[in-house]
Amino acid sequence: MQLTRIPATDFDLATTLDSGQVFHWEKVDGGFVGAIGEQAVYVEQDGEVLKIRDGEARALPRIVANYFALDHSLAEICASFPNDPAMNAARKFCRGLRVIRQPKWECLATFICSSMKQVAHIRQISRKLRERFGETRQIDPPSSRLRRGKASQTIDTFIVYTFPSAERIAQSSEKELRKCALGYRAKNLLVTARVVASGDVDLEKLGTLSNVDLRARLCELPGVGAKVANCVMLFAYERLSAFPIDVWIERILREKYFPRARKLNAKRLQAFTQKYFGDHGGYAQQYLFHHARTTKRKRKGRSFVTILGVR
DNA sequence: TCCCAGGTGTCGC
DNA sequence: GCGACACATGGG
């Protein structure tokens, strides 16, 4: 069996999957396995080519290219970022990072679970929800990686879990959901799942709304505030100007853009980011976020001098 | 042991 | 309208 090859210029798969947009891709050998909607996928990067494998779907190359937003004009988007030191450093550091197109319910549900959680915890929650409520899919490993001389042994098969539907979550209970390490978020996820499953809110139809209206509708859902709504708008509705402000971004804004401001509330920060970062603000935000998070230094209890090994 | 995490909802002023 | 606080859980 051959891996299907699709062109992918201006793209960094590992950076994109590690940038806090999605939380379920698992690293294996030279690539990653995960689900794109209902479809299980193995994908690895070889320069400007993605090599992919699935079960049988012929539409897979298009599904993968669409998911990773390979059609986004990344050069133009990055060129539209503001020209300042923090932004320039992030742009350089995050080369090839793309804002991907996620299934709406999966994105909404995952980010409801994300509040006050570290990325590692969100990954745990995503995995537990998938394992407990999702459906299994299998992918045969790429032939190039079959172990020679072990033909009699069972060949490893990648098991992938799809994200459970709103209907499936809605049938669950708060108690069951809490077993997935959701804590107080369990009730928010359950109620939102029921609203979506009942059809009272049609996530696909919301896609026709303006940014302002879409954000307002999302914020009506329990567990969804300005930050989560902006994440869902950016990662699932392709509203590339949506600018989520979490603790990381707020820290960056205060340190790099308002170093001596005293009164900075959420409203003022949001107004600034919309104007300053513009139409591709969501991309800029993602670059700033990933750069800060992956170059962080431990600040607690140890001085920088200690970290550098100098006494 | 303590601090922190891709926040939200509620309450008192 | 704004600030303070509670809310679960696990890694560092």
Task: Pick out its properties.
311 residues; five-stranded antiparallel sheet; two-stranded antiparallel sheet; DNA-binding
How would you describe the overall organization of this protein?
With 311 residues, the protein is of the alpha+beta class. The chain has 15 helices and seven strands. The strands form two sheets. The chain has a five-stranded antiparallel beta sheet. The chain has a two-stranded antiparallel ribbon with strand order 6-7. Strand 4 and strand 5 form a beta hairpin. The radius of gyration is 21 Å and the shape is globular. Residues 144-154 and 298-311 have low confidence and may be disordered. The structure holds a DNA duplex (13 and 12 nucleotides).
Question: Helices and strands in order, then pairings?
Answer:
Blueprint: E1 4-7, H1 13-17, E2 26-28, E3 31-36, E4 39-46, E5 49-53, H2 60-67, H3 74-79, H4 85-93, H5 104-112, H6 119-133, E6 136-139, E7 158-161, H7 166-170, H8 174-178, H9 185-198, H10 211-219, H11 226-236, H12 247-257, H13 266-277, H14 281-294, H15 304-307
Antiparallel strand pairs: 1-5, 2-3, 3-4, 4-5, 6-7
Helix pairs in contact: 4-14, 5-11, 10-11, 13-14
The protein binds a DNA duplex (13 and 12 nucleotides) through α6, α9, α11 and α12.
